[in-house]
Structures are given as C-alpha cells and as structure tokens.
Amino acid sequence: MNKLRDRVAIVTGGARGIGGAIATAFAAEGADVVIADVLGEDTAAPVLEAIETSGRRGLHVHTDVSDEADVRAMVQRAQEEFGDIDILVNNAGTFGQVFFHELTPQEWDRVVNVNLRGCFLCTRMVIPRMLERGYGKIINVASQLGQIGGTEMVHYSASKAGIIGFTKALAREVSSRGVHVNAIAPGPILTEMMAEETEEWANKKLSELPMSRFGEVHEVAPTAVFLASDDSSYYVGQTLGPNGGDVML
Q1: pLDDT for residue 196
Q2: What mean pLDDT is predicted for residues 153-162?
Q3: Average pLDDT over residues 173-193
Q4: 156 a catalytic residue
Q5: What is d(CA 105, CA 82) in angstroms, rounded to the nearest whole number?
Q6: Is the distance from CB of 152 to CB of 97 less than 8 angstroms?
Q7: CA angle at residue 234 from 91 to 229, to 5 degrees?
Q8: Does the pLDDT value for residue 203 go beyond 90?
Q9: Domain ranges of the chain
Q10: Contact indicator for 65, 12 with CB cutoff of 8 Å
Q11: Is residue 194 predicted with pLDDT exceeding 90?
Q12: Max CA pair span of the chain
C-alpha cells in the first residue's frame, strides 16, 4: 500500500477496461487520478467511485487523445485541479479487424491517430514540466501484437509497434533527467474492446495461448503500479508483457 502516495496520475482511456483497472489500482496505492477518456463520465462512474472509496481524488475529463487542443485542455485542467503530473499512462486505444487489402486510408488513420498520435500528444504535453522537476513516470500501453503482429490487424499492430519504438527512443533521451519511460504489452485481455473480436479469431487465439485462457484486467494493473512506483527505478525503455505466454522473450 501507498507505493504511489500523493502522486498525481493521468490515465488515458481510464473509464473502463485496462485503464479503469489501472486507475483503480493507482488510487488504492495512494494516487489522485485523472481519467482522460472520450467516453462520458457516466461510463467512468464506477472507476471514479472506486477512486473515492480509496480516499483519493478522481477527475474525469472528456478527451479525444488524437486532438491536440483536447489534450492540451485536459492537461491544463488536471494541473489546475491536482497540481503537477507525476505519472502518465498512455492507455487510450482503438482497433479494427479487417484484411489488409480491404483496409482504407481512413481506417488506418483512425487507429494510428488514437493509438500512436495520442501517445505522442499526451506525452508531449506533460513532459516539459516533468523535465523541469526532474521526475516523471510515463507508461505506454502497447500490445503483444506490436511484437508479433496480428492477422487482420496490420494497422493496430503497426500502431502498437510504434508505441514500443517510441518508448525506447524517448527513454534514451530523458532517463538521465529523471523521467522514466516504459511500456506494457498485454496479451489478449477480456475487455469491452475484446468483445468486438470475431468468434473465429477468439477461438484461434485461445488455442495458441499456453495458459489456454484470456487475461483479466486486474492481471495487468499490477505491472502499471510497479512501473509507476519507485520499485522500477532501474527500468528504462522496457516493455513488460502480461500476456499469458503469447510472447516469450
């Protein structure tokens, strides 16, 4: 307990799913949490309630992470309400399942803009102050498909691979100045987004997993807590993989 005592965190896509579990876990460890999500406050209500039950402050800010003005306004609101941002979790994401030869430029842009551009914009808005203070934790949620690729998910896989490359490059730039940048690459996790997968895809993926089951959101959140805490003080540019054995390094 209290591994994140009095820290201030932004969790994008924190209204539900993996982001919601991370936001809840952060509050349980003593952090105040800003949920930046395109989904409304009604969707985020259970997570906000869990944060407040932990005795911490929670705030929902409607945010399209692919929109620069939205991200700037969200960070400003977070700073006004809670003060300096100590932790940023770039979790907001979207996907689509389509064969490459049917993939339109519009669908490519939609996925890449949310997943990769969103990661860039949110990080760009918080990192100047982190560098001034000599402290910050940036955690980028990628995917095991960014490591191995996924059929009918070229755009998603490319965006998540981009996040892993972004993590490594930025970590080399800023780690000596007190800002730690790492990534999490979860395997298939049971979330609302996962429910959009086809049954055929889900059955095939299940057969490939050594554990023969999909993960739960509470099995990803502890990795985020670790990377956000001082326990990860010597982790730089790493990609940790709660993935049920889908990727073994």
Answers
A1: 73
A2: 98
A3: 95
A4: yes
A5: 39
A6: yes
A7: 50
A8: no
A9: 8-240
A10: yes
A11: no
A12: 51
Q: How far apart are CA 93 and CA 102, in angstroms?
A: 21
Q: What per-residue string of b and e applies to 4-38 under the rule 16 or more CB within 10 Å gives b? A: beebbbbbbbbbbbbbbbbbbbbbbbbbbbbbbbb
Helix %, strand %, coil % for the chain, to 5?
50, 15, 35
Q: How many CA atoms lie within 13 A of 153 on its CB side?
A: 21
- Report, as an integer, the average pLDDT of 204-233: 95
pLDDT band with cut points at 50, 70 and 90 for residue 116: very high
Length of the chain (residues): 249
Q: Which residue has the tokens 């049954």?
A: 199
Contact present, 171 and 237 (Cβ < 8 Å) = yes
For residue 128, report the phi and psi dihedrals to the nearest 5 degrees.
-55, -45
DSSP 3-state of 202: helix
Predicted pLDDT of residue 46? 98
Q: Which of 181, 194, 190 lies closest to 239, judged by CA?
A: 181
Q: What would be the CATH architecture of the domain defined by 8-240?
A: 3-Layer(aba) Sandwich (3.40)
pLDDT tens, position by position, 61-109: 999 999 999 999 999 999 999 999 999 999 999 999 999 999 999 999 9
Interior/surface letters 188-221, b for 16+ CB within 10 angstroms, e for the rest = bbebeebeebeeebeeebeeebeeeebbebebbb
